[in-house]
Design brief:
Elements (H helix, E strand, L loop, with lengths): L23 E6 L5 E6 L5 E6 L5 E4 L8 E6 L5 E6 L5 E6 L2
Amino acid sequence: MVTLDVPDACTALPPPADCAFNGTGPNGINALGVVAGWSAGEDGVPHGFWRAANGSVNTFDAPGAVGGTFPVSINLWGQITGQAYDSSGVVHGFLLKP
């Protein structure tokens, strides 16, 4: 078993008032062992991440996402799909091709 925690994710319990989300939420893994998901940033906003099989972690935000980036799935080629919230709270889909 491997524990997945994105460095610098908000993990305080209970979360501080400026941290609406807490922790790391993996949502998908591909056949190469790359994991995609979200983590609560120290800024209180969820950010997307992917973790390579070697353990390196990359974070990202979908364009225009100020209310959070939530990856949902990853395919064999590392393409990540998910949803992101804009400043009006409207949800938008995204496709990341790393």
